[in-house]
Amino acid sequence: MNKKILVFDFDGTLVNSMEQLSDIASEVMSEHFGISEREARQLYQLTSGLPFSEQLNTLYPEEKKRNKKASQIFEKKKRENYFLEESYPDTLETIRYLKEKGYAVIISSNSAQELLDKFVKQLEIPCDLVLGHKGNFVKGLPHFLYILEKWGGNPNDIVFIGDSLKDGEWAFESGIDFIAKEGMFTKREFQSRFPGIPVISELAQLKEMF
């Protein structure tokens, strides 16, 4: 691929955190919305990529007050356990390889900016820029536009690597190429939604592509 900027999602892509986040979300959603934890987990993963508050507003648009309370509890539980998670075994090696090849490496996530900054520093992930959720500044087009403003170039210079269907939607809506990482979703599920896209099961496979 002839790219200059590699943008990575964080949770589930660089860090093995989606299992824990799914557990927290399913518990909170089951308690506040009267659904089974199994159904809650499915709904959480189908809308993953969005900030949790926006996931709830998407799923329960008439429950703004309940959504706010549930979101606050989720974020509190997330902060209590988040920093216990680890990056995938091939994360650091792959990122170092890509940077040595001259690519700009950027993290784009809808985790809170201060939380993301702290975790990336703790894990010692060598990236050029860390973009998190802060107000209306979110993953997707706002992050991509900021990256292009800072680095120059055009959308063809960027590829986005993520583990959710929402990540793929944001990439395609922004005119940016997408590489899917299996985890929450299978290769079949990704390619059913986005025919022909490359799908990897491990980050180390990127070394064969760049």
Structure description:
- By secondary structure, the chain is α/β, with parallel strands linked by helices.
- It has two domains: 5-16 and 87-208, Rossmann fold; 18-83.
- The protein is 48% helix and 14% strand.
- The protein has helices spanning 18-33, 37-46, 52-59, 64-81, 91-100, 113-123, 141-151, 165-173, 187-193, and strands at 5-8, 104-112, 129-133, 158-162, 177-181, 199-200.
- The protein has a six-stranded parallel β-sheet, with helices on both faces.
- Helix 6 (113-123) links the parallel strand 2 (104-112) and strand 3.
- Helix 1 (18-33) crosses helix 2 (37-46) and helix 3 (52-59) runs antiparallel to helix 4 (64-81).
- The longest helix has 18 residues, at 64-81.
- It is globular, with a radius of gyration of 17 Å.
- The model has no long low-confidence stretch (mean pLDDT 94).
Task: Annotate the secondary structure layout.
Elements: E1 5-8, H1 18-33, H2 37-46, H3 52-59, H4 64-81, H5 91-100, E2 104-112, H6 113-123, E3 129-133, H7 141-151, E4 158-162, H8 165-173, E5 177-181, H9 187-193, E6 199-200
Parallel strand pairs: 1-2, 1-4, 2-3, 4-5, 5-6
Helix pairs in contact: 1-2, 1-4, 3-4
Placed side by side, the strands forming the largest sheet appear as 3-2-1-4-5-6
CATH architecture of the largest domain: 3-Layer(aba) Sandwich
CATH level-1 class of the largest domain: Alpha Beta
Could you tell me the CATH topology label of the largest domain. Rossmann fold
How many structural domains are formed by the residues?
2
Strand composition percent:
5-15%
Order of SSEs, N→C? EHHHHHEHEHEHEHE
Number of helices: 9
